[in-house]
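Bench notes, bay 3.
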Amino acid sequence: MACGRDTALPEVHQMAASLTGNHHFDHFIQIVLENEDAVAVERIPYMDSLARRGVLFSNYYAVAHPSYPNYLAMISGHTFVDDEQHAQPDPAAYSRRELGDAQLLINAPTLVDGLEAQHTSWNAFAEDYPVTEQYPKKCNFESRSGLYARKHFPFLSFKEFHDHPELCAHVRNLKWFRADSLAGYTFIAPNLEHDGHDSPLPTAVKWLQGFLNPLINNPGVMDSTLIVVTFDESSNSVRQSVLDSPRPNVIYTVFLGNMLKTGTQSTEPYSHFNLFRTIESNFGLSPSIAPQGTQSIEGVWR
């Protein structure tokens, strides 16, 4: 089984507001970049400008090391670290050499189940995904192809995508992303250079600026769309996982959208799990599959 390590997370303060059925946005876009400490990202002028334009979460945690369990948590509410009951090596893409990023075949629900049940539209886009049809009839489960890496595209780790190829029409190459036809839920995985995994941070920021600016400068998009820019984990994977460093797994995360108290900062300790619960709550997905007691993100909405 692939090895990984969950991150011990601080408790979120109890919120007075109801955490059920809070609809703040009609469209949701999550863009995930790679492996940087929050303090390093916040020094980049463009990332600082996003923070001043939206809501910066200065106490936001990834939930594991290395990358892969964090991606799984983003769409399922669980890391599946050492979970042999639900997760087994995926013969289509597993390699022991990838250690904690070795690809799994997971028999467990995801956000997709709730979205489908609620008839809420959704798309998952990966840059350089090796299927180029506009609406694929089947998924590609290879571990890697060029600058595309399956470990950063977590949907393909779940058994339902093997068993129900009709879901693969929503698992698409990024070239098909259109701002004028947004789904309710959209996940964006840049390639290994543009997410910063195989390149320095400025390369990822340059790509992000080119992708994001047409969206955030479009009032028609921003009036109804919450855009989340986050990172999978901090850069201290070896220190925390091997040396058991107490340094927290804090990552840059910003919310962008006109439904927010823009130009503000949240210091509440949140994580990928809380964002997952927020998506569930916003779209009324039930029952929740987030870890028991996980709270939605509150205090940032107009």
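Next record in the batch:
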Amino acid sequence: MKTALIIGITGQDGSYLAELLLAEGYRVHGLVRRASMFNRARIDPLRAGAPGEERLVLHYGDLNDRTSLRRMLRKVAPDEIYHLAGQSHVGLSFEIPEVTCEDNAMATLGLLEVVRDLDRPVRFYHASSSEIFGVPKAGPQTAATPVEPVNPYGCAKAFATQLCRVYRQAYGLFACSGIAYNHESPRRGENFVTRKISLSAARIRAGRQEELHLGNLDARRDWGYAPEYVQAMWRMLQAGQADDFVLATGRTCTVREFAQAAFAELGLELVFEGSGVAEVGRRTDNGRVVLRVDPRYFRPAESSALVGDPAAARERLGWAPRTVGADVARLMARADAEAG
């Protein structure tokens, strides 16, 4: 039985990855931060096993506490480490840039140093992001596309991604970065635009919400489905050779199109009018929802033309996404409506 450690197990990707690894017969350990309130709703069903079974074990810890992290890794002795933790909101990274860089860049450096000192080989996955490419001059992007981030989050992920490559080359670590494009699900946090849209559609239809505030409706993203992306993460650590891979669908969808698909799934028609902040998301008597752009939600710098080329993952890992763009929107809206 293999043993895996998931850092960031309570997040969207961590919960889906834990399900996958348990299904594959792994013993799974997860690192969680100590907090005054529990944030484990995504993984609670996985912890309810038969008496005596403990294939999912949680440990309190912090990536900035290297000593306790080193002790925990020696005790757990994982075969695979999946590093998914960090500040993951791009817009928020402009407001808390130092925290973003500490959590996503320096914490990854510290973790790589701890892994390098272990007395047994460990396979290491780092969750990188398409934001490292910023505003690329060409597309679709591959792992060889020049790195030119345009926000603090992208800068931190670029630093961590380059470090994984350096430690792979300099120390022979089996360290991989999955350069993942936007991947969503009903488990996505409510502060992300996709979940904000799907939840709003469900709540407006149920009469529990009247307004929906959105920013740049023409922003295009390569949106995939999170449960499919964790399959690629796992396959990267089963490969014969460590490398970095772009995880993407190869197709883009605008925020406008995503919102239209989500609302249409629930029988609501979106009507876009003007660019003011007044009467945003007003629902009319005929079932139409008037949506207006709110300038408060524009980012200081917007990544554009981000669309990934998944060819290498398809050819070398046998991985290909199936749920894309508007299909993800419809799936999320339906799930939020059913959840009430």
